[in-house]
């Protein structure tokens, strides 16, 4: 049975969920991961994001959400940081953490298939290197956030637009807002 590792760019997923389904949509992460795994053996799902600054009104809810994710079986939360810029904050360290984990786990032969939930074209070269090691890479994100270069490099691209979002809606109010 194929071994799958899932790498989720949290900011990219959240942005797509808000654009596609609205800011009140709450995702059932367990069902989402199950759908991405597609009957294969899950190694782990890695979720990457950066905590919001304490002065942000959503910071407490975001931290509660990250704490919730840390309790989901087979999910690892990896955090970058936000750096203040003149026009706000910019996420730092997240993309490099994703790249390192995809490569590190490929070199360790920990998975057969990587599922990359991101539309960031900068990952295309990482995908190529992992493929050269004999691994398969699937890429998924919303069409509006998709990089043609990344989608073309991946062994398989499937848009999140086509997912059964009503089935993936959290049934009960979560402990915190379900940021993607």
TrEMBL record:
Q: Which domain of life is it from?
A: Bacteria
Cite the GO molecular-function annotations of the record.
Answer: RNA nuclease activity
Q: Enumerate the Pfam families for this protein.
A: NYN
**Coiled-coil ranges from the UniProt annotation:** none
Which intervals hold domain NYN? 3-161
Give the protein name, as stated in the record: Uncharacterized conserved protein, LabA/DUF88 family
Q: Which organism is the protein's source?
A: Thermus arciformis
């Amino acid at each position: 049975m194929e071994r799958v590792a899932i790498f989720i760019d949290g900011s990219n997923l959240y942005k797509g969920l808000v654009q596609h389904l609205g800011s009140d949509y709450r995702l059932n992460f367990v069902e989402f991961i199950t759908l991405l795994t597609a009957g294969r053996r899950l190694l782990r799902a890695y979720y990457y994001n950066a905590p919001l600054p304490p002065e942000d009104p959503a910071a407490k809810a975001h931290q509660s959400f990250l704490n919730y994710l840390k309790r989901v079986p087979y999910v690892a939360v990896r955090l970058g940081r936000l750096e203040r810029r003149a026009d706000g904050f910019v996420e730092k360290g997240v993309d490099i953490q994703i790249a390192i984990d995809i490569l590190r786990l490929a070199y360790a032969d920990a998975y057969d298939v990587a599922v990359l939930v991101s539309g960031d074209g900068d990952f295309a070269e990482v995908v190529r290197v992992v493929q050269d090691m004999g691994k398969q890479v699937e890429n998924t994100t919303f069409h509006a956030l998709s990089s043609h270069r990344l989608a073309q490099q991946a062994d398989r691209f499937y848009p999140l637009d086509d997912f059964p979002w009503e089935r993936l809606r959290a049934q009960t109010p979560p402990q915190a807002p379900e940021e993607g």
